[in-house]
Amino acid sequence: MLDIGTVLFFLLSISVLFIYRMTRAGYKSLLFFNNDLAVDKRYNTAEKIRVVQVCLGFSFFIYHSIIFFGINNTVLFFFSSIIISLLLEIIGTNKGLIFGKYSYEPSLCPGPMIRNVPILIAISWTGLIYMALVCTMIILDGAVVSSINISHIFLSAFLVTILDMVLDPIAVDEGRWSWDTPGKYYGVPIKNFIGWFFNCSLILILFSMISSPHVITNPYVKYIEFSPGILFVILPAIAARPCFERNLNIAGIIGLLFTIILVIMSYHNFI
Predict the structure, then answer these.
(1) Which residues of the chain have pLDDT under 50?
(2) Which of 108, 114, 100 is nearest to 50 (CA)?
(3) pTM (2 decimals)?
(4) Domain segments of the chain: what residues?
């Protein structure tokens, strides 16, 4: 009999791999590149799908975290991560600190905003950091462990920063956000990537200080235990496709290589 974790994981996987792409660019885009980017009639509908994806992923990560980190640690991590991410984003958009001076385009960023920052961005940040943390545990420990150390913190921050080198160029090209002084990397300044590393490190350092050990009483199959990390591994390759479609070729190559490297680094722990 399927449990809720298995159902949520496969729903999330199918959604990430197929549904948004098919909604926005049609079913043919699942097999072929979409070269007609000027025509984007389904954008608003696809963005509603994106909100559902983020909420579904967030719900699954909370469920996963409760199992492997415990309720108290889960509340501490997700609450602190959202608050810190939101505060740093507000500082960035309004003061130009941390990430550089930038602004969001409200019409292209779904959901409510606080001080010019979409709440969905802070939620997405939290999900990415959690996925990267589990991916790090696959690589370093071969299991999800309830306590984290300096190696987990900085490898997770590094992984999230590399992923941003694939995701941010797409968002800038679509006009979701932009910097007052564009950088040389597809309009993204180097300061932004330093900010990503700082944000992720700060959240995980705080979590390492306030979290408590948690004992897992029941064994779980590896695809459930590692599921957030598995999603993180495939995400750069998924994002590489729209990079190539938009002639963001360096970002696309980074995405493909990143997934290949993560597969190689983590494969032995799946056997």
Answers:
(1) 1-2, 32, 39
(2) 108
(3) 0.88
(4) 70-269
